[in-house]
Amino acid sequence: MRLIPTTILAVLMAGAAAHAQTPKPAQPARPAQAPKPAAAPVPAERPTNEDEALAMAALEGLMMQPPERSLPILKKVLAGSQPTVVKRRALFVLSQVNSPEARDLLMQAARTNGELRGDAIRSIGISGDPKSLDALQEIYKTGDEDAQKQILQAWMIAGRKEAIYNIAVNAKTEDEASEAIRMLGVMGATEELRKLGDNSKFPNGKSPKGLLDALAISGDLAGLRKIAEGSGDKEQRIDATRRIGMIHSDAASAALRDIYVRNTDEDIRKAALQGMLISQDDKGVLALYRAAKTSDEKRMLLRTLSMMNSDAAIEAIDATLEKKP
Fold first, then answer.
1. CA distances to 105, 223, 285, 308 from 303, in Å
2. Radius of gyration of the chain (CA)
3. Which of 22, 94, 127, 208 counts the highest number of beta carbons within 10 A?
C-alpha cells in the first residue's frame, strides 16, 4: 500500500471535489515566493448523511489493506450504486494502492466523460505514477477544455513542470497557454517561466497573458527584469516593469530605482514608479525626488509620494512648501 503523499497542492480545496473548476489566478498583495503546497490527505467533499459518512470511513480503512484485499471492494463500489460522493472517495483510495490494476482502474475512469473523470485525473496526480501521468498526454490531446484543465492540475500536483511547459509552448490558443503558465507560476517553475519569456517562441512575437503574473507570483525578479529591459513588445516591457513591484523585496525595489534612473522612456519610468507605489517604496521615491533635476520630474515624484501614507511623503511635502533642498 502506497503512503499518502505529504504534499498535495491546494487544488484539493474544500468544495472542489464535486466539479473541480480551475481557480482563477490570484492577485496576492505580497507574492514574494511561490505558494507552498498544502497538505490534504483526502478530497474535501463531505458526506451528506450518516450512511455516506460510514461508507467513506470504511473506504479509508482499505488504505491499510494489501491490494489483493482492497481492490475487489473498490471495484465493486465503483461499479455499484453507491452515491457519487462515495465513489469519489474510492478513486482517491485507488490512488494510494500500489498496484497495476489500481492504476488501470484510474485510467479507465479518467478516459470517460462522466462525473468521476475529474476526480480520477486528480487522483492520478496524487498517485504520482509516472506511466499514468504520461498516459494523460493522449487524453489531453483529445479532451475538452475541462479535461485539459483537470490534467494540468494533475501534473501540477505531481510536479510535472516539463509536461506543463510543453503545453504552454505548443498551445493552440492564448487561453490554453495562459492556463499552463498560471500552473507553472503556482509551482514556482522559474526556469520554465524564463524560457517562456523568450517572445520568439510564440507566433505573434508576444508572450501570452499571464506570463508576467506567473513570474511575479514565483518571485522571479531576474525573469521580469529581463523582459522589462529587453527589446521586445513595449507594452509587455511596461507591464513587466510594473510587476516587479509585486515581488516586495529590497532587490526588487533597487531594480525599479535603477530602471527609473537609467531610462529615458517616460512610459517605462512611470511604470517603475507604479511598481514602487505597489511595493510602497517611499524611501526610494523620496531619494529620486531629492535627486530630480527638473520641476516636472519633481512634481511627478511628489504626486507618487503623496499616494503613500508615509513619513517620507510628509517630509517631502513639508520640505517643498518650505523650499528646503
1. 63, 29, 10, 9
2. 25
3. 94
CA–CA distances in Å: residue 47 to residues 53, 80, 272: 5, 18, 51
Backbone angles phi, psi at 10, to 5 degrees: -70, 5
- Stretch among 32-36, 148-152, 262-266 having the lowest mean pLDDT: 32-36
Residue 320 has pLDDT above 80, yes or no: no
Q: What is the pLDDT of residue 201?
A: 56
Separation of alpha carbons 95 and 148, rounded Å:
20
Q: What is the pLDDT of residues 42-86, one digit of tens each?
A: 445 677 789 999 999 999 899 889 999 999 999 999 999 999 999
DSSP string covering 196-220: HT-GGGSTTSSPPTTHHHHHHHTT-
Contact between 106 and 10 (Cβ < 8 Å): no
Cell of 254: 533597487
Q: Directed axis angle between helix 84-95 and helix 100-110, to 10°?
A: 140
> What's the mean pLDDT in 251-279?
95
All residues at 6 or more sequence positions from 312 whose CB lies less than 8 Å from its CB, including other chains: 282, 283, 285, 286, 305
Alpha helices, H only, the chain? 50-61, 67-79, 84-95, 100-110, 117-127, 130-142, 145-158, 161-170, 174-187, 190-196, 211-217, 221-228, 234-243, 250-262, 266-278, 282-291, 295-306, 311-321
Predicted model pTM: 0.69
